[in-house]
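BUG: 3D viewer hangs when loading the predicted structure for this chain

Environment: internal workstation, default settings.
Expected: structure renders.
Actual: progress bar stalls at 90%.

Input used:
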Amino acid sequence: MAKPIRVWMAPPGPNPWKVIVVLEELGVPYEINSCKFADVKKPPFTNLNPNGRYPAIEDPNTGLVLWESGAIIQYVIEQYDTEKKLTYADLIQKHKLNQWLMFQMSGQGPYFGQAGWFNVLHHEKIQSAIDRYNAEAKRIIGVLEGALEGKQWLVGDKMTFADLSFVTWNDRFDATIMCEREKMFDGFPNVKAWHERMTGLPSWKRAMEKRAQLMDEQGLQWNGMPKGVNNMKEYEELMKKHAAAQAAAAKGE
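Structure tokens produced before the viewer hung:
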């Protein structure tokens, strides 16, 4: 039996959970090394990922250390999806899957992330930035809506890693563009039905239960901020207070 893959993550971010959902769906053993976001830019994590972004994995079965969630997903599929549950052997379909994964990595993730930042986390409201990234996030959803017309999945006749790569960010679409959750896919019925098919999976539910537990252990809200903190300005002030308290403690005051 394979040894567990170690997944390094901070629990708030969507990208680590893309990997977890794929591992859950395939039944690949794993263990989570839950880190604080403040530790992402320093050792020991930067010894694994010099870019300082979660997630990264250590696979004791092959000795591989790997970062970038898309690359990790491709590796897990190639190494552990021997029954082709979430992929295809066919050349054309296989590359279509990678195409959609690249679109998730280059389109959905960055644009959703920027929309979420300027809507929720940035201490100053910059309407031009909010408008731009909200529009881009909706455009991404529109691309997916068209691709799903007349079918249930992005490629072929079954759910694949390409579909699963979108689910964690799509699940935050309401918070990303600041709309009511029940209305977040209004005008995008294909995306809505597709998303509901995936969030109804036992693998998704198990992953989100683990996320909730890890978030609670770190005293975090859904958006990664400490409980009681509402924006980046308040967060920075809290960090300054912590730094001052640590400095005072070091001096014995």
